[in-house]
Amino acid sequence: MRGERVADFRSDTVTRPTPRMLEALLHAKVGDDVLGDDPTVQALERRVAEMLGQEAALFMPSGTMSNQCAVAAHIEPGEEVIVGTHNHVFQYEGGGLARIAGAHVRTIDGEGGMMPLERLSRAVRMPSVHMPRTALICLEQTHLVSGGTIVPLRYLQEVRALSRDHGLPVHLDGARLWNAHVETGVPLREYGACADSISVSLNKGLCCPLGSLLAGSGAFVERAKRVRKWMGGGLRQSGYVAAMALTALDEVLPLLADDNARCRRLGGIILGLPGLSIAQPTIDTNILFVEVTDSNLDAPAVETALADHGVLALALGERLLRFVTHRDVSDADVERAAMALQQVVAHP
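Now predict its structure.
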C-alpha cells in the first residue's frame, strides 16, 4: 500500500489543520502567553468562556493536563474525588489524580457515563477526622469507553443539583463536548451550567495539532494558572495555535455532525457482517467499538489485515476494535473500511 492514501480510523487525534487554519497561523498576532500578553490566546479564552457560559478560560497544552490541572485547582492533597470507574480522568491519564493532585479517589460503576444518583449521593462522606473529605465530582461528555455516548443533559442537571446540596464542585471532562453539542443541539451554555469547570479539546475533531481550554469562574482560573505553572504547562507564543482554534470554531465545529453520521453509517454496515458485532448499545457520536466474534480471528489480526487494505483501526485487547470518524475521514473512506472488513471476515 506504499504511496496510497490511508484511511485512518484510529482516533480523531490524528486530524490535521485545514488550509484556512494554517493561513490563520501564518498571520496570527502573538505575544508571550506566560507573561499574559498574547492577544490571540486571550481572544480564544474569552470566546470559549462565553460559549460555555463561564467567567474565564485558560489555554492548556493537552486535555490530560487540562483535567489534572482542574482537579488540582479544586482540591487539597488527600481530599477525595468521586469519578466513574471508566472515566478518562481516572483510567487513562497515567494515575495523575494521585500523582499530581494527591487525590484520594472513589470510583462508582455506571453505564453510559452515568453513575447512579443514589450511589453517588451515598458516596459523599460525612465529616469525620477518620475519613478523607469529599471534595469533587468528575463527569465526562461524551463518554469515551461507552462508545462516545452522549450523557443526557437531564442527568448532568441532576448531578449538578446533587452537588449543590452537598456543597461540592463538579468538573466536566468535555474533550468531545463539541460532538454532543452538534448532535443534540443543546447549547454549550446549558452544558456549561452543569459544572464548575469544563475542559474542551482543540486537537480532536477541531483539528488543531495540540491544545485544550479549561473554563470556570475567574477565581478558579486564577488557581488553575498557578497549577499550570508548576505543571510546566505555560507556552510562550501559543497564539499560533489559538489562531487555528478560533478558525476551527467557525469552520470545523459545524462539520462534526458529519463525523457522527459517518460513524453511524459504518456501524450500520458492520451490523450485516458475520464475525463482527457492535459492542455498544447506540452510536451517538463519532466513536465505534466493534467486537470480533469469529473464533478464527482476533482484534490484532483484523487490525493487521485492515492495514494491508490501507485502513487503520485500533485493537484494544483480544476481541475489541475501535473506529473513530473525523474530518480527515470521508464517505469514501467509510466505504473502503466496510469493503476491507467484508474481505477480512470472509477470508479469516
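The chain is about 40% helix and 15% strand.
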